[in-house]
């Protein structure tokens, strides 16, 4: 399309080409939608962090370091996204050519996402590792895929910072796709292992309870509550793992099939927030899940004390006159 411009002598016109407007629906539109959803999830992250400090003013030093680290990463991630959206849609809304420029804060999203995912994978891998040596092979394999994702993200980050044009994103979109492929494998392995461990931990309680023996009834009731908690944990692990894995697969496919748009970037914004919220939700649910196994807090405290005592003194609490 050409624009008619009056010449200096006022008697003739010449045609000047108008700048081509890029397609905004699958570029800035996708980023805008992803930014809005990720901002909502960031609000949920802040709520989870606030709840964590209310529930656990004293906690394991590892978690006391991990939670503020997640807060910093998620805050910087959100600021980079929103500042980039402002740059493209507000500050340069009358300059269509600005979409071709790779805004520096947007470049930081890739390494921030990589570090956040690695931190969350480390949290889940630690849980699997603590269950026993026979599950540690899964941890090693998942760690290898998680480190491979980190490697692809580092390579993509180097390519991003070496080019000022966003159009070069097509050249390294396969790196992003490969990184999310590695993420999916690590997610599936860790989630599957956790579900297997939880299901194997069920006590096998039967619904029929022998009411004649009070002690047996109480023991069976405890086993029943334990099984319910295990099933709840398995269901929760399945849902959270399925959600993060599904989003990761979407990013993997979109970056591989549609590398010339930014739909995968918008979905990637959301993926990063889901990982952080899933980990924080697991941390905050520990007390409620533990207390629901018992009828009152005193019972929970007594059982917890007995468990710690038996770990220290295996023979403590054994029947001195076992039945023959």
TrEMBL record:
InterPro entries in the record: DUF6534 (IPR045339)
DUF6534 domain: residues covered: 184-288
Keyword Transport appears in the UniProt entry: no
KW Secreted (keyword) present: no
Keywords linked to the UniProt accession: Membrane, Transmembrane, Transmembrane helix
Domain of life of the source: Eukaryota
TM region(s), chain numbering: 27-44, 65-88, 108-126, 138-158, 178-199, 233-256, 262-283
Protein name: DUF6534 domain-containing protein
């Amino acid at each position: 399309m050409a624009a008619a411009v009056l010449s200096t002598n006022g008697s003739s016109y010449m045609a000047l080409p108008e700048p081509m407007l890029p397609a905004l629906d699958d570029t800035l539109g996708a980023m805008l939608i992803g930014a809005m959803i990720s901002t909502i999830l960031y609000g949920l992250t802040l709520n989870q962090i606030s709840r964590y400090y209310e529930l656990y003013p004293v906690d394991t030093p590892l978690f006391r370091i991990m939670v503020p680290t997640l807060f910093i990463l998620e805050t910087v991630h959100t600021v980079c996204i929103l500042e980039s959206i402002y740059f493209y849609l507000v500050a340069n809304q009358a300059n269509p050519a600005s979409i071709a420029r790779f805004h520096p804060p947007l470049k930081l999203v890739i390494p921030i996402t990589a570090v956040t995912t690695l931190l969350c994978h480390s949290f889940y891998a630690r849980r699997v590792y603590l269950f026993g040596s026979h599950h540690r092979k899964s941890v090693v394999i998942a760690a290898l895929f998680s480190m491979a994702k980190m490697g692809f993200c580092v390579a993509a980050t180097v390519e991003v910072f070496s080019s000022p044009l966003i159009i070069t994103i097509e050249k390294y979109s396969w790196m992003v796709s490969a990184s999310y492929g590695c993420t999916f494998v690590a997610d599936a392995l860790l989630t599957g292992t956790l579900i297997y461990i939880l299901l194997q931990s069920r006590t096998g309680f039967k619904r029929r309870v022998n009411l004649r023996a009070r002690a047996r009834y109480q023991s069976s009731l405890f086993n029943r509550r334990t099984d319910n908690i295990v099933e709840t944990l398995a269901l929760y692990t399945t849902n959270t793992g399925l959600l993060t894995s599904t989003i990761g697969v979407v990013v993997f496919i979109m970056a591989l099939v549609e590398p010339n748009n930014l739909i995968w970037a918008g979905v990637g914004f959301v993926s990063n927030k889901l990982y952080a919220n899933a980990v924080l939700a697991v941390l905050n649910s520990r007390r409620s899940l533990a207390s629901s196994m018992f009828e009152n807090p005193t019972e929970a405290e007594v059982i917890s004390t007995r468990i710690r005592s038996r770990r220290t003194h295996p023979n403590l609490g054994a029947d001195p006159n076992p039945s023959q």
